[in-house]
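Wed. Picked up where I left off yesterday with OLC1v1034164C1. The coffee machine is broken again, so keeping this brief.
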Amino acid sequence: MSRTISTMSKSGSRLLNRFVTSLSFSPAIHRTTRSLETLAYEEVRSSPDKPYSCTAFVLHGLLGSGRNWRSFSRTLASSLSDKWRMVLVDLRNHGKSAELQGLKPPHDIGSAAQDLADLVKLRGWDWPDVVVGHSMGGKVALHFAQSCARGDYGSHVRLPRLLWILDSLPVKVNAEDSDGEVEKVLQTLQGLPSPIPSRKWLVDHMMKLGFSKALSEWVGSNLKKSGDKETWAFNLEGAVQMFNSYRETDYWDLLERPPKGMEIAIVQAENSDRWTPEIIQEIERLAARKADEVDGKVTHYVLPKSGHWVHVDNPKGLLEIVTPKMASLDLVN
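Structure written out below (tokens, as returned):
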């Protein structure tokens, strides 16, 4: 079944209009950062001196990076057993992966998912037990799971047992029903001079164009020093192509027939306006199916007191949803 749902009517501004700041968690978590031929990533563990047996990939959204999820992942790791490792991935064209030369076009959701498989193979890792994907990262997680199930990455792939799809609709986004906020931001960035004169200039310029101070400062936070110049911490043209692919992809068939042994857990932010009554009803229908009606399963959660940025708006509530289910995987690992 395919669905075309408008998700950008007001959520475009939510997607980019929140200045993501670090959360106030401070457990003693070990962290390593490596840039690879495939993807850059950051590793978060609660007990780095002990062997791990469970891995969760954490995937950010458009124009973000793995560091956006650093604080949440620290706390999640500390709330689980020391068996767990969190791998915070910088998707292609984002974060430190934007600096890599080996990630060739097409820059789409399928290629971003293939990058994850290449990362596993290059590092010689076991396949991830869990994939957590927020916004655009949610669709990358779905594509990765679908490709694993189809054998696209080889015959010895182990499917993730659990997907967390965080405020990310698994359907095609109808751009005609959008208010165009995300598109306006991307078009503005494409029209800016290169190099950017300064971060202050950028923030002032965007505010003069009518964008909010919070949005303008968030965009400015994605600048980095390159010698005496300011450059983007992401590959803008590649990110635009990924956004277009995000709008076009649809994974409803995967939800209708989830692979055996896989759970697809969809978290809907209570105050996120990207969810329509139709799509909520359909997801609730899938979640209500009996175990003998399908091999895998779909579950549905509503995160209260949260907009699209679930890990910032209500991190405690999100942890209360995510932690018990992930902890239960220890018992069968």
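Quick read: Residues 23 and 71 are 6 Å apart (CA to CA).
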